[in-house]
Amino acid sequence: MTRAKALSALHILPLAAVAACGDPQLQCGPGTHAQGSFCLPDGPEPGSTTTIEDTTFDPTGGGPGGWTTADPDPTTGSSVSDGPTTNSSDSSVSTTEGGCVPLECGVDVACGSVGDGCGGQLECGPCEEGTIDGIRPVRMIADRSRGRLYVTVRSDSPMHPNELVVIDPATASIVDSVFVGSDPSTMALSDDHTTLWISLEGSLQIRRVDLTTASPTPGAQHGLPPGDFDPAVAGPMVVLPGTTDSVAVSLHNYNYSPSFEGVAVLDDGVPRATKTSGHTGASRLTGGPSGWLFGYNNLHTGFGFYAIKVEAGGPTQTEHEGLVSGFYTDIVYADGRVYATSGDVVDVSNPAAPAKSGVFPFAGAVLPRLDQGRVLMLTPPDFDNNVSVLRDLDPVTFTQKQEVPLAALTADYIDDFVAPDDATLAIIAGEGFGEPPVVQIFANPFAG
User: Fold this and answer.
1) What is the pLDDT of residue 11?
2) What is the pLDDT of residue 448?
3) What is the 3-state secondary structure (H, E, C) of 392-416?
């Protein structure tokens, strides 16, 4: 499998958890309605889709590495079908009498049981799944150049507290770790994959980590500029394109509501002269073309979208309304667009004038794979589905092509949906109410 540039995302919190925490009722913009913790567009339900069954990980048995076909789900009865199959060993593309070109295992679908698009059925083998045990993860980022996952670990973790751990997704195991500081949290990776920046919430700092050495090597720690009221911690961060030492930081103080304290840019730890104002602004932050960032206010009902120009003296921003909506919505930039976990898509090909491009009829963590002509979306369980659903979405027509129910992923919320390589997907998933989150790794069924 080839390896390309990493894209990562996101934080999804379901409505049940919101209500439990006493947060405000979900409010949606015009033309949308609330479903779970997301704002979805009004209109008819999406049409029928093809489903692919899932598998689970048994460390004590099964095939090589313990990967086994899942037992039927007690609710849905789903398992790998024993019905008629299309021979996946035949690499030739055949055309049916009606002119339909069927999908192929290893080309269009990597694993699972799926309709071939022409009335037949493909059996492409089990989709592997695994969990990293023993750590309490905070955030995760993928390094596609090395095929690795980097995870920050909580200070109260039974193993690797206050460390950065390196995970090999092929074996679902920790292969390296290093102490980085007090309460490590969010991360940002330079576009040349040589430098990782980590937020240290316990010391109100950020720290540079060199990835060019045999093991990740922590460097200097840098204090953050103060917020509007008190010292702030680094929330979402972005390493500016073409650099390794210039970092944009969304500042937060979690003792206040809303917590947002402005966006600052630091060059090798030195803040630029000005930052954006706090309270209302880019509480979520993502990258953009050279000289630009984009943000979204997901903390109160302003729901503004921000085009942030990065200038020598510091960042400046303009607010644009009606483009994205919803509490807890997050955003990710890819190739001239910003994709939101609410399903909204914003055209930022002209960064100074963002415009609505379209909306998917679903919500969930998003992972744009535009090199493959798709956007992956992972929807956590909600009132309509008791399992997570992985969706293959078309970024041109804003429709769903296929979906995969993942019965093993039963968490209430999903963080940091990433792809360390074409064949593998990973998330931080949690069940809330005091249960620690876990890193889950699973095969990408659309990796053909």
Assistant:
1) 35
2) 57
3) EEECCCCEEEEEEEECCCCCCEEEE
Sheet (strand 260-267) strand order: 233-239, 246-252, 260-267, 270-271
Instruction: Extract the tokens encoding 440.
Output: 């889950």
Residue numbers of the domain that contains 258? 8-48+127-443
Nearest alpha-carbon partner for 286 in 229, 346, 226 = 346
418 found inside a domain? yes
Domain for residue 213, yes or no?
yes
The structure tokens 């090199």 sit at: 371
Counts of helices then strands in the chain (DSSP H, E): 1, 36
Q: How many domains does the chain have?
A: 1
Q: What is the dihedral of CA 405, 146, 395, 425, to 10 degrees?
A: 10
Q: Find the CATH number of the domain harbouring 319.
A: 2.130.10.10
Within a domain: residue 75?
no
How far CA 189 is from CA of 7, 8, 53, 121, 236, in Å, comes to 10, 10, 34, 41, 12
Please indicate whether residue 240 or residue 16 has the higher confidence score (pLDDT): 240
- Look at the pTM and tell me if it is higher than 0.85: no
Q: Are 199 and 187 in contact (CB under 8 A)?
A: yes
Distance CA 163, CA 57 (A): 26
